[in-house]
Amino acid sequence: DFGVAKSSVSAWVLDVVLDSAGIAKLRKHNKLRAVTAGLAHKRIAEARVAVVVKEAAEEWIKLKQNPFFMLGVGLYMGEGAKRTPVLGFSNSEQGIMRLWLCWCRYFLGDVPITARLVVHTNAQKHVAVKYWSDLLHKYSVRLAGVDAYKSSASGNRLPINRLPYGTIHVQQGVGSRYNHAKMMEWIRLAKEI
């Protein structure tokens, strides 16, 4: 850093011609900077996750007495995303999804939540979207898209109208990694009860 704007430096070196060795050296330098920045970001995120997990353990002491809190942890234990660091939840029952979204709004506040609807290729998409729209709107969840699939479950022996409204997948946006870390700690602690 020379204390000069990048645009000024860019104008100064605009006509400089580099041979292949010079270009390779610049690419190597830029790649090294990117890797270093990526590692620093990863360390910061890991440190933040460690703090969040500690906070979750402290919150657990008070929250485990709340039946509604424990219901949400139990719902997530059964239907939530556990392998990816995203607070995500999938279900085909409107009542279960209502409980989950209500839980999120109560315990997580006004976090951004998006949804994707997955319906069978033979289902009526507009009917499925209508079925879920009021619920999503009530909890300020944005429907990001509708995907169609052809089920291969049970060798296609299940009736195609088994899930006429499809399955809705909701996930938290910003901050999801940290709320997922909290949830995974709460699940770990719940298993110790």
Account of the 3D structure:
This protein has 193 residues and is of the alpha+beta class. It has 6 helices and 4 strands. Strands 1-4-2-3 form a 4-stranded mixed beta sheet, covered by helices on one side. Strand 2, helix 5 and strand 3 (141-149) form a beta-alpha-beta unit. The radius of gyration is 24 Å and the shape is extended. It starts with 5 loop residues before the first helix and ends with a helix.
Please give the structural blueprint:
Layout: H1 6-12, H2 20-63, H3 67-79, E1 88-91, H4 94-108, E2 113-120, H5 125-138, E3 141-149, E4 167-172, H6 176-191
Parallel strand pairs: 2-3
Antiparallel strand pairs: 1-4, 2-4
Helix pairs in contact: 2-6, 3-4, 3-6
**Biggest sheet, spatial arrangement of strands:** 1-4-2-3
Class computed from helices, strands and strand pairing: alpha+beta
Distance between the termini: 55 Å
Instruction: Summarize model confidence as the mean pLDDT.
Output: 86
* Stretches with pLDDT under 50, minimum 5 residues: none
User: Could you tell me the number of beta strands?
Assistant: 4
Helix/strand order, N-terminal first: HHHEHEHEEH
Determine Rg (CA atoms, Å).
Answer: 24 Å
Main sheet: strands, sense, barrel: 4 strands, mixed
- Helical fraction: 55-70%
Count of alpha and pi helical runs: 6
Say what oligomer this is.
single chain
Portion in beta strands: 5-15%
Silhouette: extended
Short description:
With 193 residues, the protein is α+β, with helices and mostly antiparallel strands. 56% of the residues lie in helices and 14% in strands.
